[in-house]
Amino acid sequence: MRHCSVQVRGLLTREELDRYNALMDVGHYLETQNRYDLVYTVQKEIDTLILPAIERLKEKSRQRDRDTELYLRQKEAGFSDMDDEDED
């Protein structure tokens, strides 16, 4: 069974995390029984379950990029104001 990243797990809701943990337990049990045909199905279910958390992580990244861009524009505008004052 493949775990998702810590960042993704951190963005799972309590309900999603409980389901994720239960599916991982089932998957590990199936692996010990060498039932890899069923493990594949459980892994697909886990992959589907974590998709909303992955989207939340992507949105956080996009928001951080927007905030950085805004900060840099404001910083640049502040330096432009200072340059205008120096010319006076």
Walk me through this protein's architecture.
By secondary structure, this protein is mostly helical. It is 85% helix and 0% strand. It has helices at 6-10, 14-32, 36-49, 51-87. α2 (14-32) packs antiparallel against α3.
Total domains: 1
Content of β-strand: under 5%
Query: What oligomeric state best describes the polypeptide chains here?
Result: single chain
The overall pLDDT, averaged over residues, is: 92
**What is the 3D form?**
rod-shaped
Low-confidence sequence ranges = none
Briefly note the structural class of the backbone: mainly alpha
From the N-terminal CA to the C-terminal CA, the straight-line distance is 67 Å
Q: Which H/E pattern describes the elements?
A: HHHH
Number of DSSP-assigned strands: 0
Please work out how many helical segments DSSP would assign. Answer: 4
Largest sheet: none
Write down the Rg.
Answer: 23 Å
The amount of helix comes to over 70%
Protein name: Aspartyl-phosphate phosphatase Spo0E family protein
Organism: Paenibacillus allorhizosphaerae
